[in-house]
Amino acid sequence: ASTIDDIRVTGQTEVAIQVDWKNPQAEVDYFRLTHTDPSGQEEELNVQRSQEARTKHTIVGLYPGTEYQISVQSIKGNTGGKASFATGVTDIDAPTKLVTTKVTEDTATVSWNKVQAEIEGYMLSYTSAEGSSSDIFVGRDSTSYRLVGLRPGVLHTVYIWAFSGDKVSGKSSTEAETGLQSSTPKVPKLFSL
């Protein structure tokens, strides 16, 4: 009777996974909640039974973009009930500190801090009053990218996000205003002496 069924993942962030499960009929002292990362590192914690029909708990301090095996079992005295299992995956963190480092008439270079999650790469796009670019793939080890072929004298908003499979992070953005085209350079006159 102390078997827990239907542990489920009800939400997640980059560093947390929220789970809940149905409280068993039988008396329990507490629940033992365990989460295991892909390398097999396991952490246990004790959760008090809630007064509601289900007990909720948010597991914090997790690593972004990582799949965790989660189990919960009821503990009464020194006896553990049958465990119930679920799998949860934290969100991929977004690139941080996206800044424009260099701008010319038709190029803009942006740089960012790499994400913590294991990812396949980044996607980058930009928009201006004229419309938006298609998504540009950038390798996962990159921390900067040079956009070329931009229109002069235009304010561009640049977006970057990380992805792995069909999971994507939130987007970071920065602005880059291209320079105006300079007129033809003036040729200094040669004065004959």
Short structural summary:
InterPro entries: ECM_Regulatory_Proteins, FN3_dom, FN3_sf, Ig-like_fold. The radius of gyration is 26 Å and the shape is rod-shaped.
Alpha-carbon distance between the termini?
108 Å
Instruction: Please indicate the percent range of residues in DSSP E strands (runs of 2 or more).
Output: over 45%
Rg over CA atoms, rounded to whole Å, is 26 Å
Summed up, the helix count is: 0
Using DSSP, what is the number of strands?
17
Helical/strand content category? mainly beta
- Unreliable stretches: none
User: Helix fraction?
Assistant: under 10%
User: Helix-strand pattern, N to C?
Assistant: EEEEEEEEEEEEEEEEE
User: Largest sheet at a glance?
Assistant: 6 strands, antiparallel
Shape annotation? rod-shaped
Mean of the pLDDT scores?
Answer: 92
What tags apply to this protein structure?
193 residues; mainly beta; six-stranded antiparallel β-sheet; five-stranded antiparallel β-sheet; 0% helix; rod-shaped
SSE map:
Blueprint: E1 8-12, E2 17-22, E3 30-36, E4 42-47, E5 54-59, E6 67-76, E7 79-80, E8 84-89, E9 96-103, E10 108-113, E11 121-128, E12 131-132, E13 136-139, E14 144-147, E15 155-164, E16 167-168, E17 172-177
Antiparallel strand pairs: 1-2, 2-5, 3-4, 3-6, 6-7, 6-8, 9-10, 10-14, 11-12, 11-13, 11-15, 15-16, 15-17
Tell me about this structure.
The model has no long low-confidence stretch (mean pLDDT 92). The protein is 0% helix and 51% strand. It has 193 residues and is mainly β. Strand 11 (121-128) and strand 12 form a beta hairpin. It has no helices and 17 strands. The protein starts with 7 loop residues before the first strand and ends in a 16-residue tail after the last strand.
